[in-house]
Amino acid sequence: MPRFFIESVDSEHVVIEGDDARHISLSLRMKRGDTVTLCSGGVDYICELDELSPEKVVCRVLEKKLCENEPNIYLHLFQALPKGSKAETIVQKSVELGISGVTFVLTSNCVARPDEKGFSKKLERLNRISLEAAKQSGRGRVPQIDGLATLEQAVERMKAFDKAVWCYEKGGVPFGSLGLAPNTKIGLLIGSEGGFSDKEAKTLPFEPVSLGKRILRCETAPLAAAAIIMNLTGNM
To answer: Is the pLDDT score of 1 beyond 80?
Structure first.
């Protein structure tokens, strides 16, 4: 069943406009009486199509239920900004795995250093990728992609989480020793292509975690870590 994200559902009837209306009417060629799933705030609304046009689609709510595909944890990725298109891969795959949000961070070893204006355009694309990945994987929420933050700003945000972990290529404790549990808020910090500098590693206030003896690429590490965390908390 096709899935679409909307801001809110305030009545028995819901109006869809813009690109989604055109997609339903023209691309999917749906008809009156067909059903779609509308997602808002982690809730799935099963709806029947009442009226269709490329400009507006009117749906009638048949059923309301919590989305079963959302993880029982809040996992936010703080990712040191990589170069090229790696950020797009990280966003797409991490959203599929169940990440709740992504903040890109500038660390000392980041090769890519866009200005705020230049990154804002990229941020629009990254959020579109998040939306499409959420649709494809059956998510009930669309993870927000943020940026750019300094390492110090990221650390301050992570201090408010129930658990804060960072992956270090020079070793750390295993994920299994962290006591990760459902219904917790977890911050995950991953370095860039060159990892974290020795100075950054010494000043980070959280215990480092190991992803094993092999050195993973910066676009592989967050996906491996997210998968491990989802598995340990019963979400895979």
So the answer is: no
Instruction: Indicate if the pLDDT at residue 157 is higher than 80.
Output: yes
Calculate the CA 172 to chain-centre distance. 25
Q: How far apart are alpha carbons 232 and 12 in whole angstroms?
A: 39
Whole-angstrom CA distances from 188 to 23, 47, 106, 161, 224 are: 36, 36, 15, 10, 12
- Burial (CB < 10 A; 0-12, 13-18, 19+), residue 109, is middle
Q: Which helix (H) or strand (E) holds 152?
A: helix 151-158
Structure tokens at 126: 């990254």
* Residue found under tokens 């977890």: 186
Per-residue pLDDT tens for 95-108?
999 999 999 999 99
Distance between CA atoms of 208 and 114, rounded to whole angstroms?
28
**pTM, 2 dp:** 0.89
- Which residues lie below 8 Å from residue 2, measured CB to CB, with a gap of 6+? 24, 28, 30, 36, 37
* Other CB atoms within 10 A of residue 156 CB: 11
Residue 116 scores a pLDDT above 80:
no
Kindly state the greatest CA–CA separation across the chain: 62
- Is the per-residue pLDDT at 224 higher than 80? yes
